[in-house]
Fold:
Amino acid sequence: METIDNSVVEKSHSESGAIFTAIPKVMEEMDAVGKNQSGDGLKYKFRGIDDLYNALQKIMAKNKVFCVPHILNRERVPVENKYGTKGNHFFYQFKYRFFAEDGSFVDSFTDGEGIDWSDKGSNKVASISQKYALLQTFMVPTADMSNDPDNVAPEAFAPRRMAPPVTNLDKSQTQVSAPQIKRLMTIVGQTEWTNEQVKETLKNKWQLTSSKNLNVKQYEELVNIIQNEVYEEKEIKNYAPQS
Structure:
């Protein structure tokens, strides 16, 4: 880890000054910032750094508040994904010092972490870290505060019904799903079974020509056959007499 010598770390706030009235004024004037951003492959919404800039820049300028970042620590660890792509895992520690016009200040300390496969790693962690420094310093509300679970009485929710257990009859009448087929192929790929062995088992046991024609009960039985055979092979190898 690279540690940056920063002599201003020892004091995180002024004893008094305009900053202690300026920050509450910013909080009073700013609007909520909703979670409106989304990214590729993400199943949730979030607030981006640009959302915070747009909400705070004019209000901070009006109240004579500005922020200066300092990098306290940083670390970069080489990583590689399963496809062989090389990248870096970044860990940064930041201090954001918020000043008022009289020189008084308060500090916000935040971490930034991210993996990058190109040349944007430092930018990513800086954006993430500053976003949380702004969120936490100014207590930025979201636009969906009315959906806070603490605002809803438990009686408002209907009782949850438990799904009936799946019986063997249901399984025999339900066709195997695409994720189950994918899992089956993964299991086969982790063993010494070949596609020809799978096809032969399908034909001999159920007179089927494709695993896509399996029902759930047959699928579970085939998985057990493959896994049990692998287990038995391991047991034989483990207990075989050593020469």
Notes: The helical segments are 19-29, 49-62, 121-138, 168-172, 178-189, 195-206, 216-239. The radius of gyration is 29 Å.
